[in-house]
Write a structure and sequence with these properties.
Elements: E1 5-8, H1 10-26, H2 29-44, H3 46-49, E2 69-72, E3 78-85, E4 88-96
Parallel strand pairs: 1-4
Antiparallel strand pairs: 2-3, 3-4
Helix pairs in contact: 1-2
């Protein structure tokens, strides 16, 4: 099994911060931190899962790479778009799963 390093684009880091702030508005700070930590944990799981996820044929992710892959979170609410370059997983985008178009 190949182990990858994770690189998260700045725009994705900003999106994760916005998600955390949204959760704070709806619940409280403690839940928001827990929710953000779970999202980061799912992203970190790509260190060993990246090879097992097939290249996506969906148009939404193809603007970053022709070999774009999508990890759908456990709660099915978020789609994490990424591609692999050498030994690095580059996280390109995170979108609500409802927004992903074929």
């Amino acid at each position: 099994m190949k182990i990858y390093q994770i690189q998260i684009r700045k725009s994705v880091k900003k999106d994760l911060e916005l998600i955390k702030n949204f959760v704070v508005e709806k619940t409280d700070h403690e839940n928001a931190i827990k929710y953000a930590a779970e999202l980061y944990a799912e992203i970190e799981s790509l260190t060993y899962l990246a090879d097992y996820i097939k290249v996506s044929e969906w148009k939404t992710g193809n603007k970053f790479s022709v070999k774009e892959k999508i990890l759908i979170t456990k709660n099915r609410k978020w789609s994490i778009f990424f591609h692999v370059y050498r030994n690095i997983v580059i996280v390109d985008m995170i979108l609500p799963s409802k927004m992903v178009k074929e």
